[in-house]
Structure formats: structure tokens, C-alpha cells
Design brief:
The protein is α/β, with parallel strands linked by helices and about 450 residues long. The chain contains 18 helices and 14 strands. The strands form 4 sheets. A 5-stranded parallel sheet has the order 2-1-3-4-5, sandwiched between helices. The chain has a 5-stranded parallel sheet with strand order 7-8-11-6-12.
């Protein structure tokens, strides 16, 4: 049986290394061996492996250094660390540093094969995702969409599926999440990509001028209209019209927009003649339009006309694993523009990860620019990152004790985890299974929420 996945086994105990390699070869894996950390680092620099199985206690260099070398040389390679019984704390630290999993010695062959199989499958999925992302970026020109989180992958896959159609799309998401980038991706992947992409921000234009801006106007239709003018609907004909901040519009404008979408025609302000337009409309908002409908601020019929394909952009706090990648991307841009060679320390990245980023990706980009400009050393340290405390806005007339959705979710997660830990007497593997999450996710949630296991130790992941 030929598996095809390449595995590197690293252990300074020859018997253990040889036996493990034999079991993996019998299962169909292509296996290489390294007798110590130095040999492993040399192999990792010379060739790419799908999975590395390394002992932690070697040295020097030890398994942690092998992990770091593998992460630098081939970020997609999955590393499993082997650790002797009683040194689980070292395994937890390895997980925190980026290892995929750990395996406690002594282990049985079935357990070894299951762990290696799962790691190889993750490597395969990451490889496919990388190919998809590379093709996606090349086709859609999205150099500024960075990340590998499940939330972002789900969004981009949905964008790919809907881009080719002419369906109207409503993009929702907090300010700074990149709604216009997604709109441009939809246009770039459509049959209209060789026609204009025309954006308009409704919040930046007064109500009286917005109708003229979108629909155009006749000469003399209002003071200052010295000549007839085509509107953005006509400018975008054959292409895509991106209407940002649609929630800021007034009911009168909404009625005219609804008619344009239903009839495929517009009338310039001051004219009665209808003009046919062939436009795909993509709208975006950071508001809760269903709430606006309930408050009579937004037309329900227009909402359903726009919301044919809904796309929700997740806030940065819901895809924290993308923060280091985004930070590195923004810093690389700063270095390229300024000729610098600055980098982020691990402590600085950890500080970035701890922030909720109410301003989302835009806020993170500004923070990286600020830190890079103010830091005097080649390395940007945690002290160079000056984060403002997050102040949650309150609704006028509401109680000062109103909490955000994120706070409510955190409280619910904390309660569920604490109950499971108590009921299962600190058996965190069973806790993870019961809650339907991986051990790594459980460990990260417990660390973020400040939850200790029964024994007062962080969970094994």
C-alpha cells in the first residue's frame, strides 16, 4: 500500500526511531530518519516533508528547535512532538509554538497511525487551500486579502461560487473588514470583469446629491445643474455598481433604487424618459438592516431585493489566527515602501492577538504602520504597540450594563467549559470531545478565558 505522504522521524534513540519508521513504512508512508536535531534541521532545509515526528528531549538542538526550523522552512508541514510520560507541559508549549499534535511515549501502533494520518490529511488540505488561494489571488487580484482561517476560507469559497452569476449581493460586516475588497473580487470573477467597477459611498454624499450622483440629472433640474450629467448607473452599465453604506440612505432614495433594480431602468433627475441599464448591483452595510426595517428606517422590499446572496464578513476577533499573517503582510508593505527590514517579536504578536480590534483589519494595518514608524530598533517589541482600551458603545437610553455579543458569547463558553471540566473531573480530552471541539481549540479557549483545569494546569492539546 502506497500512501504518498513524506514523513521524517527524528529521535536520538536508535531503537525507538527505527521501530517507529518501520511501522510507518508498513502503513505505506515514505519515511526518512534523522538521528538528532541537527540532522533533522539539515534535512528540513534541504527537502519538504508532509509530517515531521520529532522527539522533544534531544539536544542540542532539541525538538522545539526542529519545530521552529520546520515552521520557517515549510509552514504547511505538520509537526507532531513525542514526549515521555510526565512532561506534558513541554508538549503543551510545543502546541502553542505551532506543533500540530503530541504523542506520549510509550505509544501503540494504532495511536501512532491515527495521529500521522490526521496530520497528513491536514497537510493535504492546506496544500489544496494554498493552490486555491494562489489561483484565487491571481484571478481576482486580491493581494490584500490575507489569512487561512476557516471563516475566511468559507467566505472566499462562497465568493468564488457566486462571482460568475449576475445575482445581487448584500455584503454585511463591521467597519474595516474589507467589504469593498470582496465586492471587487465578485466583479473580477464575473463575466463583467472587462467592464467598469463603479463604487459609491452613500454615507459620504448628502441625500439630495445622492440621487443625482446615481441616476444623473437634466440640465437646469436644480440650482447648479448647468449641464446634463450621466449618473453612476449609466457609468457602470455592463459592469458592477457597488453601493456602500446602503443603510445610510433615506426612504425616498430607497424607493427609486428599488424601482431601478426591479425594472432595470433609471430616470435622470428632472427627466421623465426611462433609460435602460444593464448593471449588477452589490450593496454593503455595517448596520443591522433587519433592525432598521423594524424601526422603519429601511424598506423591507428593498432589503429582500438586495439580499439575494448574503455575504457576511467576519470581524477580526472571530479569526484571530489570521492576525499574525495580516501583521506580517502589513509590515512587509511598510518595509518595502520605506526600505526597512523590521520584524515583529513573538511578544509583539502575542500582544496583537490579545486585542479585540474593534476597527478590524483597518485598525490593525494602522497599528502596524504606527509601531513600525515609532520603533527605533529593527525588532518591533510589545512595548512599541500602544493599544487603546476597547470602549464598547452603548445604545442611547439603554442601561450602562448592556454587554456586547462577544462578551455574552465568552460568558456562555466559559460556563460550558467550566461545567464540563467539573463534571468530567478535569479529563480535558473527554471535555473536548463532549464540547465537539479539538483539544487545541479547547486549550486556546481556556487560556483566553482564564480557565484552569482541575489540577490547575493548562489543558493538554
Amino acid at each position: 500500500m502506497k500512501n504518498g505522504s513524506k514523513v521524517l522521524v527524528v529521535d536520538d534513540q536508535k531503537n525507538m526511531r527505527t521501530t517507529t519508521a518501520l511501522m510507518l513504512r508498513a502503513a505505506g508512508y515514505e519515511v526518512s530518519e534523522a538521528e538528532d536535531g541537527a540532522a533533522a534541521i539539515q534535512r528540513v532545509g534541504a527537502e519538504t516533508f508532509d509530517v515531521i515526528l520529532t522527539d522533544l528531549r534531544m539536544g542540542p538542538p532539541d525538538g522545539m528547535e526542529v519545530l521552529r526550523a520546520a515552521s520557517e522552512a515549510s509552514p504547511g508541514t505538520q509537526v507532531i512532538v513525542m514526549t515521555a510520560y510526565g512532561t506534558i507541559d513541554s508538549a503543551v508549549e510545543a502546541i502553542r509554538q505551532g506543533a500540530y499534535d503530541y504523542l506520549a511515549k510509550p505509544f501503540q501502533e494504532p495511536e501512532l497511525l491515527v495521529r500521522i494520518s490526521k496530520a497528513a490529511e491536514k497537510r493535504r488540505l492546506l496544500s489544496e487551500m494554498t493552490l486555491l488561494t494562489g489561483e484565487f489571488r491571481e484571478r481576482y487580484g486580491l493581494e490584500h486579502i490575507v489569512g487561512r482561517s476557516a471563516a475566511l476560507r468559507d467566505l472566499l469559497e462562497r465568493v468564488v461560487r457566486v462571482a460568475h452569476s449576475d445575482a445581487t449581493v448584500l455584503i454585511t460586516g463591521e467597519s474595516g473588514t474589507g467589504k469593498e475588497l470582496i465586492a471587487r473580487a465578485l466583479h473580477a470573477g464575473s463575466r463583467r470583469s472587462d467592464k467598469p467597477f463603479v463604487p459609491v459611498n452613500c454615507a459620504a454624499i448628502t441625500e439630495t446629491l445622492l440621487e443625482s450622483e446615481l441616476f444623473g440629472h437634466a440640465k437646469g433640474s436644480f440650482t447648479g445643474a448647468t449641464r446634463a450629467r450621466r449618473g453612476l448607473f449609466e457609468e457602470a452599465s455592463g459592469g458592477t455598481l457597488f453601493i456602500d453604506e446602503i443603510g445610510e440612505t433615506a426612504p425616498g432614495f430607497q424607493a427609486r433604487l428599488l424601482r431601478a433594480l426591479q425594472e432595470g431602468e433609471i430616470r435622470r433627475v428632472g427627466e421623465s424618459t426611462a433609460i435602460q441599464v444593464d448593471v449588477r448591483v452589490i450593496a454593503a452595510t455595517n448596520q443591522d438592516l433587519r433592525r432598521a426595517i423594524a424601526e422603519k428606517r429601511f424598506r423591507e422590499d428593498l432589503f429582500y431585493r438586495l439580499n439575494v446572496v448574503p455575504l457576511r464578513l467576519p470581524p477580526l476577533r472571530e479569526r484571530r489566527e489570521d492576525i499574525p499573517l495580516l501583521a506580517a503582510h502589513f509590515l512587509e508593505g511598510h518595509n518595502r515602501r520605506g526600505g526597512d527590514r523590521k520584524s515583529l517579536t513573538a511578544e509583539a504578536v502575542e500582544r496583537l492577538m490579545s486585542h479585540d480590534w474593534p476597527g478590524n483589519v483597518r485598525e490593525l494595518e494602522n497599528m502596524i504602520e504606527q509601531a513600525a514608524a515609532l520603533s527605533t530598533a529593527p525588532e518591533i517589541r510589545a512595548g512599541d504597540i500602544h493599544l487603546e482600551p476597547v470602549r464598547h458603545a452603548t445604545v442611547p437610553g439603554a442601561s450602562a450594563n448592556v454587554r456586547t455579543l462577544a462578551e455574552v458569547v465568552d460568558e456562555a463558553e466559559r460556563a460550558a467549559i467550566e461545567r464540563a471540566v467539573a463534571r468530567l473531573e478535569g479529563d480535558l480530552s473527554r471535555v473536548a470531545r463532549e464540547l465537539g471541539i479539538s483539544a487545541t481549540t479547547l486549550w486556546r479557549k481556556m487560556k483566553r478565558l482564564g480557565i484552569s483545569s482541575r489540577a490547575g494546569e493548562p489543558p493538554a492539546a
